[in-house]
Write a structure and sequence with these properties.
Layout (H helix, E strand, L loop, with lengths): L2 H7 L3 E7 L2 H4 L2 H9 L3 E4 L1 H8 L5 H9 L6 H26 L6 E5 L8 H15 L4 E6 L5 H9 L4 E4 L4 H20 L9 E6 L2 H6 L10 H16 L3 H4 L9 E5 L9 H6 L6 E4 L1 H7 L15 H8 L6 H31 L2
Parallel strand pairs: 1-2, 1-8, 2-3, 3-4, 4-5, 5-6, 6-7, 7-8
Helix pairs in contact: 4-16, 6-16, 7-8, 8-9, 11-15
């Protein structure tokens, strides 16, 4: 039994980051779905930029050149990403059907330059959703205060969303409330809600990289302490009367543990601790390869302690977690924006001559 199979045995799904076209061409994606039970993939700007410098997209650029239309790097990006997403969605469709919409997703970030205004973000989400045309597409949107209304609106439009950069139970609960409002609005309109989904992503490892240097003698990973809080909060919210009032078949707001920021050699503790039911583990290909043939024996994430209290107890400094997280979220959005512009530069260099 390998890593993916053992995680599935414990009720957890595994999604893989860094998807690009060669995974389809080589048969790698189909093999991982069929043999390992991979249940989702994620595209990112850096992996697409690297792939564009190879040969996988030669036919696409030839097709674009032959169309004789006015082109920009942005319009070429729209064409390439839609095709990539459609190919992955096609291969993952059977998983999507078999899991009744709980898995089988291809994820993509909204263009980060659309994340500063509500109307712009909604329009960008609607455009890519309609262009791809597959129900197992999922749009990644950071859970900033500006984007919370966007996430709620997309839920009302039955567009699948992964709210990213969620670091605290408070933010998770805000997304949960917006998700419930979206479902309740659909119910008021007499519509079913069993095919509406929303996920939330906690970037494990990236939080440690930000917090750990500020803390002396911390006995455990701070991000794992926060993960315990989030998971306990997740379990408690689904005991509420408001959730119980929803019809059977409503999908929970599942947690995605994003472990892509953890070096593979340091990932084992996280894999063991975060292997809990009804959650998703997002891995990088290098981490998966390092532990592929390992059968996992999980530890427990159930007993929740207070991550923030532990932080303040262990630290000799006055640290505001909220301020640090806000700074980190802003840095992540800036990093994503820079990666997107570098991707557009690569497309212009490669395809627009």
């Amino acid at each position: 039994m390998n890593l993916l199979q053992s995680l599935r045995r414990y009720g957890q799904s595994v999604w893989l980051d860094e998807y690009e076209r060669s995974w389809v061409i080589s048969g790698q994606l189909q093999h991982s779905i069929d043999e390992d039970g991979l249940r989702g993939v994620q595209s990112n700007f850096q992996s697409l930029q690297t792939a564009i410098q190879g040969q996988e997209y030669d036919r696409d650029f030839t097709t674009l050149a032959q169309q004789g239309m006015s082109r920009t790097a942005r319009s070429d990006y729209d064409y390439l990403i839609v095709r990539d997403l459609q190919l992955a969605a096609d291969l993952l469709k059977q998983t999507h059907v078999q899991t009744q919409g709980r898995d089988g997703y291809i994820q993509v970030d909204l263009p980060p330059d659309a994340l500063f205004e509500v109307e712009t973000a909604i329009a960008a989400a609607q455009k890519i959703w309609q262009s791809v045309g597959w129900s197992n597409l999922m749009l990644r949107i950071p859970a900033t205060q500006i984007m919370l209304p966007v996430i709620e609106q997309l839920i009302r439009e039955r567009i699948s969303v992964n709210a990213t950069l969620v670091f605290s139970p408070n933010v998770y609960e805000q997304i949960f409330d917006g998700y419930l409002r979206g479902l309740e609005r659909l119910m008021q309109q007499g519509e079913l809600v069993s095919d509406v989904v929303c996920f939330t992503t906690f970037p494990i490892g990236r939080l440690d990289a930000m917090i750990d240097p500020l803390i002396a003698n911390l006995e455990s990973s701070f991000s794992l302490m926060q993960a315990k809080l989030l998971y306990q909060h997740y379990r408690n919210l689904y005991q509420s009367d408001r959730w119980r009032s929803l019809p059977d078949g409503a999908n929970s707001l599942r947690l995605v543990w994003d472990c892509t920021g953890i070096p593979p050699q340091a990932a084992w503790q996280y894999l063991q601790t975060l292997a809990v039911p009804e959650t998703v583990m997002m891995l990088s290909p290098s981490t998966l390869e390092m532990y592929r043939e390992v059968s996992l024996l999980p530890t427990s994430l159930i007993d929740a302690g207070s991550g923030e209290q532990s932080l303040m107890r262990e630290s000799q400094m006055e640290i505001s977690l909220n301020q640090l997280v806000e700074q980190f979220v802003n840095e992540e959005i800036t990093r994503s924006l820079n990666a997107f512009y570098q991707l557009l530069d690569a497309i212009e260099h490669r395809g627009i001559r």
